[in-house]
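Hi support team,

I submitted a single chain yesterday and got back a structure, but I'm not sure I'm reading the token output correctly. Could someone confirm the output below corresponds to the sequence I sent? I've pasted both exactly as they appear in my results page.

Thanks,
R.
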Amino acid sequence: MASRPPVCREHVRSRILMDCLGPSQQQRSADWGVLVVDPITVKVLSSACTVSDLVEHGFSLVEDLWKNREPQPEAEAVYFISPTEDSIDKLVSDFTSEQPLYLKAHVYFSSAPSSKILTTLREHAKFVNRLVALKELNLEFLILGDHAFTTDSSRALRLVAESIDDRGVAQMSQELTVIAKRLTTFFLCMKMKPRLRFHRCASDAIKQKSSRRSLSEELASLVYEQLDNYSQQGLEFPTNQACDLLIVDRSFDLVAPLIHEWTYESLCYDLIPMQGCVYKYCITNNRNEQEEKEVLLDEKDKLWVELRYLHIAEALLHISQRTEEFRAKNQASTLREDKDTPRLGNSSSGTQHIRRLVQSLPQYREQLSNIATHATLAEDLNSEIKSRSLNIVGKLEQDIVHGKASSKELLKLFETHSLHRIDKLRLLLCYCATQGEKFDPSTRLKWMRLAGLSADDMSAISSLEFLQQKGETDSSKSWPLTFSKRRGQAFVRKERTSLTGESWELSGFEPRIHSVVKDLICNELPLDVFPSFSENVRGEEGIQDSRRNATSGSVRSTTGHWAKRQTNKSMLSTPTELKDAFSEQTRKPKRTLVIFVIGGMSHSETRVAHEACVTLEHDVILGSTSLDTPAEFIENLKRARGEESSSI
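Hi R., thanks for writing in. Yes, this is the structure output for that exact sequence:
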């Protein structure tokens, strides 16, 4: 039986509706009000609430704080804004001008305002006279479902690079403070006090001799300080550490955001030009004309929820089965195809059949449209996979990251196949991330010409090599989360399986977070690699030694077609076996595990959080500064080192 999921979205939605929109509705004299948001809070609002939520609470209009707005002197306005100086200036000006925009102001801040901000508000009597409520909601993060969230910090990968060579220390500190504030609001909203840990790689260990902390440790320090300050104010907040927060940066695993992940959701965002969660496609209408259609792929789409974490081959089979089930079981479909259906006018039974047909039409159309959407999406994915030879690309990627292929195989593929430019670049980046050596200038120029890449493309490789310096873990550590630098001795990743226990071709790669989650649950993360910022990482229960020995095993073969089903022979491969392995831990009180990645996370890593909740029966939440597709991550790589990265 699966554990209850971490209800992140419901927490945020409840916080907005019950603590902001609900009270303001009760306090308003009019039935309808105006909701005013800024660029930060509009994202927070849209990530958790729907338009119907707003309408139900009496809001017919949502306004942008930064745009010119028509005065509504009879309306009361609810401001859900971030407490920045610019936002406060706009707020005050709405009520201190000759003609105030609104009758009353209900102000809710996304995070705690500074004393300077509060002093500024007190100084404006006209505003204070119209102020009904002033409260902080502690909501300055974006929810991406029940298992993931982001702080919406797109520059964070550059912070990781700057932390290596000490460039832009002052600006880095300022931006890291913003990330820490937003991460802190997550725990305040969820009412969880975390036990803090961070990842220390080899380069960070060297920096211990200096006075400046590593990036992960600095963020842990800032979060600890802000949570401590909140607790000392006497505000309602748990005193016991009810969850674990582990902070890592993107150099921890540079392969996960680059390699092709063969699950349905990951491929959709990787191969299809989506706008957020909006999928656009064309259909032929009744007039035989092409018509564009937009569909939201979110939790309201039950079929999307069923398919999103399945291997693409499994998802295609599932769509096909659902189509056949629909044809066989749907009442309207059956009525249309039933040869024995009475004709109109033959008897009263014919009228009854028609009535049942009409009654079932809305549901029939909705189900049919939903299945048709995913059938079209699956067709688009198949087309992309075939046209870009991604089955061949995917196999070589798997072989490279598992140490079974070298530059020789890469060179041969480039010479024999006409590949998409971005796929060639991703292959090269995977190769660089797992070889442990840099390209010299002549080799770099050779690969650039052979793959047909630009100088801008090669800057991504330069940045990745630079970040790789930080990610290399000391070989003396007991926790083997490194790729071997010698071929044939690659880090052994356990074969991934579906929730039904079946495995699929090209699904052998697991992000490193997968191992971290399991070791966190078993309290086996070594303290020398993952030290604690809190005073007592082992907790009150007294766990066993946190060091674990490296395990050995064989890397499975990834030969064959991408959609080939494999026989599962690996240890602890089924959900039942995994549950048995963690049975000792599941008898203890379960702690929520939160892993935060500085520099962006991938869809494959959010899938790990979901599967851990279902398979290991633990609440696992993955947070990051952003959620990136492979193309977005590569663009961030190109900008990671500023002007220096543009050189070949």
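A quick pointer for reading it: The CA atoms of residues 193 and 240 lie 7 Å apart. Let us know if anything else looks off.

Best,
Support desk
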